[in-house]
Amino acid sequence: MFPRPIIDPEISTLAPDFRAVSLFVDAHGVATKPLDPAVLTDACRVVQEGGPTWAEAHLSSWSDVYSGFGAKPNRTPCSAQALRKRVLKDGGLPAINPVVDIYNAVSLRFAVPVGGENIDAYVGPPRLTVADGTEQFDTIANGTPAIEHPAPGEVIWRDDVGVTCRRWNWRQGTRTRLDSFTGRMWFVLESLDTMPIDALNEAATALEAGLRTLIPGCTITLETMATA
Nearest-CA neighbor of 122 among 198, 200, 51, 178? Predict the structure, then answer.
């Protein structure tokens, strides 16, 4: 059984319109297939052509939310904005691994932050909460493992051990990141009300379809979350 993500009540004061879709994927013992490179290149093309229509409004809303908990969105933008900036600057996005490429493609195509985590590395359920500043965040600094701490008041995803993603969806930690796609995985698509709800559902469906193509025979369960 997958642990059910928790949204702490104080998140509703920062983003009362927050809503998300979780995909829980079990790929134990299932063979994988190669990813068609066009999945990522087509998503980059959508961005270069100015799509989707809600992108500017949605990413601007995320910048406002980041500012609301003390982050500087120009320096540390939400993950969807960071990907979009790279594509517009460099003309594309390099491949990382098939599963990351799939959720990056969905993030670009739909202008929505998407995260992918190794749920088997979690201790307790994922929790979206406000940091007190003492939590530990496993990362890499100057090529070596390091421990950071979030700023007090920063929105974080965490488990019972420490931070798994800083500044809501800005940077994932090393402890729970997806290094392979042969176990149990958790994906989360996070939106605000400037993204049409139909588009969020379409993005979740696209991610599910991509994962089923990449990992035939895997089991996928979807769950919606919201602050209200």
Answer: 178
According to DSSP, the β-strands at 127-130 and 6-7 are parallel
199's CB contacts (< 8 A; 6+ apart) are: 52, 54, 110, 112
Say if residue 182 is exposed, middle or buried (CB neighbours under 10 Å; 0-12, 13-18, 19+).
middle
d(CA 3, CA 77): 28
- Phi, psi (rounded to 5 degrees) for 217: 95, -10
Q: Is the dihedral of CA 182, 33, 82, 13 positive or negative?
A: negative
Token pair listed for 59: 């990413």
pLDDT digits (tens, 9 = 90+) for 104-129: 999 999 999 999 999 999 999 999 99
Pick the closest to residue 119 from 167, 187, 170, 166 (CA basis).
Answer: 187
Among 59, 64, 74, 54, CA closest to 16: 64
Evaluate whether 5 touches 128 at the Cβ level (below 8 Å). yes
Rounded to two decimals, the pTM is: 0.96
Please give the backbone phi and psi of residue 29, each rounded to the nearest 5 degrees, phi first.
75, 15
Tell me the two tokens of residue 149: 């701490």
C-alpha 228/C-alpha 11 separation (Å) is 10
- Closest to 13 (Cα-Cα) out of 60, 65, 59, 77: 65
**In this structure, what token pair is assigned to residue 22?**
């979780």
